[in-house]
Specification:
293 residues; alpha/beta; Spore Coat Polysaccharide Biosynthesis Protein SpsA, Chain A; 2 domains; nine-stranded mixed β-sheet; two-stranded antiparallel ribbon; 11 strands; globular
Length: 293
């Protein structure tokens, strides 16, 4: 049986938001995977490479965002302020691709909606291999009705310094469903870039964990059917556990069968464990700098 034909260009009434900065290596492939979408906004932060040129060349609308250090950040600003002509919005990062199967599922979900927002999952590629076992990323809400969802405000402004929501989650006002086809995550940047980015993330995560330790941990959320609540409960439980680097490696490589992802899986799990060790060290450094009350 032959595979279903791709959707016709610009045939699906969805407005796509792509936040970018210096993404010339990734943006073209991302946009080529979205030709079925009726409207595409590339929201830039004053890139100095060919990002905006590529976006305009492929027919996307380009908007510039200048961050003032407050709220909203880039994605929420785009959700609130861009002139979307469709009732459904889709968030896609520049290093992500929407395969034909997921595009058809999105089209069907919009045509006969059973929810106000939909979660999707990644197919994460690392060192040329799909991390099928160790990093089958959790559910992320990316497709939603206009006016029914926004990113949460974690109240963190200077920690990390990003103008774009990275760890914040979209919260939908209404029912949330799930799409089963996978979104492809495959960056064209090299490993040096990825490691440098993880170092930036570790600074933000250290600050977030210090905040998180002061927040309540409603463990009954572990049994919630809402993926966002479940993920929050797991994170808050994890914050209170010892030996996080060892736990991370054991969980990803052994419990999640990361050894089946081959040599790339081993290296990824080791790097994730190292990431946890760096976060722990930065948490300790922050505590040493903070005088006791």
């Amino acid at each position: 049986m032959s595979a279903p034909s791709p959707l016709a260009p610009r045939s699906v009434p969805v407005s796509v938001i792509i936040p970018v900065k210096n993404e010339e290596k990734n943006l073209r492939e991302c946009l080529m995977s979205l030709t079925w979408a009726d409207e595409i906004f590339v929201v830039d932060s004053n890139s100095v490479d060919r990002t905006c040129e590529i976006a305009a060349e492929l027919g996307a609308n380009v908007a510039q965002f200048d961050y003032d250090g407050g709220w909203p950040k880039k994605k929420n600003w785009a959700i609130r302020n861009l002139p979307h002509r469709n009732d459904w919005l889709l968030i896609v990062d520049a290093d992500e691709r929407v395969p034909d199967a997921l595009a058809r599922e999105i089209s069907q979900a919009i045509e006969q909606p059973s929810a106000d927002g939909y979660y999707v999952r990644w197919k994460f590629i690392f060192l040329g291999r799909w991390m099928r076992y160790c990093w089958s990323h959790g559910w992320m809400l990316r497709l939603f009705r206009k006016g029914r969802a926004e990113y949460e405000d974690l109240g963190m402004r200077s920690e990390g310094g990003w103008d774009n929501e990275v760890h914040e989650n979209i919260v939908v006002d209404g029912k949330a469903g799930r799409l089963h086809e996978l979104m492809l995550h495959e960056s064209r940047e090299d490993l040096e870039f990825w490691i440098a980015k993880q170092n930036q993330f570790s600074t933000w995560n250290a600050a977030r964990r210090l905040h998180g330790m002061r927040e309540p941990a409603p463990l009954w959320w572990l049994f919630s059917g809402d993926p966002l609540r479940k993920r929050k409960a797991l994170k808050r439980l994890y914050l209170r556990m010892p030996c996080k680097p060892l736990l991370t490696f054991t969980w990803l490589y052994i419990v999640r069968l990361g050894f089946l992802d081959g040599e790339a899986g081993l290296r990824f799990c080791a790097l994730r464990a190292g990431h946890e060790a760096i976060i722990n060290a930065k948490v300790m450094e922050s505590k040493l700098k903070t005088p006791p009350p």
